[in-house]
């Protein structure tokens, strides 16, 4: 046992050296704020019981109130795009007040950092052993905590305290999310995401630029290449200068904004290993022998890299993309310098959300990805399996409190939906209050269902069948159609021809690719993944920029196999979790 723990904490130390911050589709490329620690609580749920004669009343099921109230500690990441009304913060807002008044739970944030710094800060916390009562961790950290035996077995707690709505969310889609959270028959975490496919890429193109260069939306990858070149060479903004680029790209390579997933998918390639990701959220395809093979080393990837190299050489990609982040690539686009990008469903909300209003004559169209041949392109999604989990410390006095909190959040956002806990608009600023809770869940197809409902309501001019959330989206779409350009993003999300219309086409036509491996990170992924990822980033970036020939790809594949790749493949294929 001692040797096992030494090995586990050696992995934690390795994380401190190698781990970098994850660029989630949620952060939209924004830079975070500086770290800010909150004062240490005087009493927490993980502390020794207070010397008191008062008997504590604990809820005997999914709902109820603690009496006397308890304190539960956690840690938080701060997204730079999340806005707070005056007086609100992660420490004090409508949710924290509701938790105290309704549940008798005071949530204490032991520390808060930007989402760009969260993964590193969590690694430090794990190494110190000073865990909060519950916390959000990535899949790699989840595995390490399980191996270190420092988080609670939630099997019985889930059965007793998770509400029917919470269980429905976690167990939807065949129970894949719950299966991923279960280790050796024990539920060790609460999946924070997964089950969805809305991260699949669409293609965003400046429609005014298309008109200016005399081209139509793409039907093939050759069309995509031609549009990128025309946007580079044919003065699409009509300013008489050679100052535009065809395809947006930045150092992240794979991302919800300016990522390359959709481009690769056009060549039937499915690589995924974000520059600042965990290096353990990987795609696997099934080979002719029936075994799993890593998607990133397949010959189709080489073909797509060759096309990107040609585009870079032609000047269609920003020459310094390798040193800019998502914020900078977003600024290039919004400053009228780039006319095409691949990205996830949220791209209309950032960074291009205000261009229709701020850049006269500009507009963006949303299109499905296209294929290089007569075989339909499959849009890849890594959203099926959870990438993050809420876990509860073994030392937590009230491990059930995480579920009591989660049940309340799920009820307000999905059960008895309350718009006041979701989004509040003051003037022209919208406050996403649904981002404030310290714990949350998802229903994978909620956005898709809302889009179809809104489209039907707009078509029939009848919003009577919409729920409160859907009615809000409907009102925004109507405002846009009546001339309110500030509602452009809502129109691109919910209307016919928008993002969810494109995603719906993928889903209905079975055009979404998901990895054949459904398990959690293997030991070699955890131990060697970061170094293998960094080498992949250097290789792909160098090939695109012409620093290496396209044939160097084959040499890199051999290096990957010899540096741990073979072990990863053996572990994956021995897991029994290949679909």
Count of alpha/pi helices: 20
Reading off the top of the CATH hierarchy, the class of the largest domain is best stated as Alpha Beta
Q: Looking at the structure, what is the overall shape?
A: globular
Radius of gyration: 24 Å
Kindly state the number of beta strands: 16
Number of domains: 3
Q: CATH superfamily membership of the largest domain, which one?
A: Periplasmic binding protein-like II
Region (Disordered): 28-70
Biased composition (Low complexity): 33-51
Keywords: Signal
Protein name: Extracellular solute-binding protein
Give a structural overview.
- The protein is an alpha+beta fold and 579 residues long.
- The protein has three domains: 2-196 and 385-435, D-Maltodextrin-Binding Protein, domain 2; 202-380 and 518-574, D-Maltodextrin-Binding Protein, domain 2 (3-Layer(aba) Sandwich), CATH 3.40.190.10; 446-513, no CATH class.
- The chain is built from 20 helices and 16 strands.
- The strands form seven sheets. Strands 3-13-6 form a three-stranded antiparallel β-sheet. A three-stranded antiparallel β-sheet has the order 10-7-11.
Report a brief summary of the structure.
Helices cover 39% and strands 11% of the residues. By secondary structure, the chain is of the alpha+beta class. The longest helix is centred in the C-terminal third of the chain and has 23 residues.
């Amino acid at each position: 046992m001692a040797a096992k723990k030494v090995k586990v904490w050696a992995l934690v130390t390795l994380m401190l050296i190698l781990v970098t911050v994850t660029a989630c589709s949620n952060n939209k490329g924004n830079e975070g704020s500086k770290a800010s620690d909150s004062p240490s609580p005087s009493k927490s749920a993980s502390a020794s019981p207070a010397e008191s004669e008062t008997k504590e009343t604990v809820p005997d099921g999914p709902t109820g109130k603690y009496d006397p109230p308890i304190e539960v500690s956690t840690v938080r990441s701060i997204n730079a795009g999340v806005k707070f009304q005056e007086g609100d913060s992660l420490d004090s807002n409508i949710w924290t007040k509701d938790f105290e008044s309704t549940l008798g739970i005071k949530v204490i944030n032991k520390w808060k950092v930007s989402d760009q710094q969260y993964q590193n800060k969590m690694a430090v916390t794990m190494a110190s052993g000073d865990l909060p009562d519950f916390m959000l961790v990535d899949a790699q950290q989840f595995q390490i905590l399980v191996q270190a035996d420092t988080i609670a077995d939630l099997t019985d707690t889930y059965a007793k305290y998770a509400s029917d709505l919470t269980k429905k969310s976690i167990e939807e889609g065949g129970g894949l999310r719950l299966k991923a959270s279960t280790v050796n028959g024990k539920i060790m975490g609460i999946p924070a995401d997964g089950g969805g496919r809305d991260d699949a890429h669409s293609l965003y193109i400046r429609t005014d630029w298309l008109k200016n260069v005399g081209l139509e939306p793409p039907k093939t990858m050759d069309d995509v290449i031609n549009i990128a070149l025309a946007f580079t060479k044919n003065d699409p903004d009509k300013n008489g200068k050679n100052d535009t680029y065809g395809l947006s790209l930045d150092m992240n390579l794979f991302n919800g904004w300016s990522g390359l997933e959709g481009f690769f998918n056009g060549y039937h390639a499915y690589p995924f290993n974000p520059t600042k990701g965990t290096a353990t959220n990987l795609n696997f395809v099934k080979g002719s022998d029936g075994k799993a093979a890593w998607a990133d080393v397949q010959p189709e990837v080489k073909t797509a890299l060759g096309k990107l190299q040609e585009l870079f050489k032609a000047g269609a990609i920003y020459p310094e993309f390798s040193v800019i982040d998502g914020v900078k690539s977003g600024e290039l686009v919004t400053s009228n310098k780039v006319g095409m990008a691949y990205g996830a469903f949220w791209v209309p909300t950032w960074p291009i959300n205000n261009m229709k209003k701020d850049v006269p004559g500009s507009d963006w169209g949303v299109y499905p990805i296209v294929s290089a041949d007569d075989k339909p392109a499959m849009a890849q999604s890594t959203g099926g399996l959870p990438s993050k989990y809420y876990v509860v410390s073994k030392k937590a006095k009230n491990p059930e409190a995480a579920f009591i909190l989660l049940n309340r959040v799920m009820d307000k956002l999905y059960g008895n939906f309350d718009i006041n806990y979701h989004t509040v608009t003051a003037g022209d600023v919208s406050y996403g209050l649904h981002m404030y809770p310290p714990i949350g869940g998802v229903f994978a197809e909620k956005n898709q269902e809302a889009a179809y409902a809104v489209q039907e309501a707009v078509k029939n001019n009848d919003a009577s069948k919409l729920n409160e959330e859907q009615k809000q989206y409907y009102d925004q779409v109507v405002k846009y159609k009546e001339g309110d350009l500030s509602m452009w993003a809502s129109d691109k999300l919910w209307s016919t021809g928008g993002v969810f219309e494109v995603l719906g086409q993928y889903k209905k036509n079975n055009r979404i690719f998901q990895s054949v491996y459904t398990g959690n990170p293997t030991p070699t992924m955890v131990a060697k993944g970061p170094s293998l990822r960094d080498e992949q980033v250097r290789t792909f970036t160098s090939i695109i920029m012409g620093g290496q020939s396209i044939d160097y790809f084959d040499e890199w594949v051999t290096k990957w196999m010899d540096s741990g790749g073979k072990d990863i493949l053996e572990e994956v294929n021995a897991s029994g979790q290949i679909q």
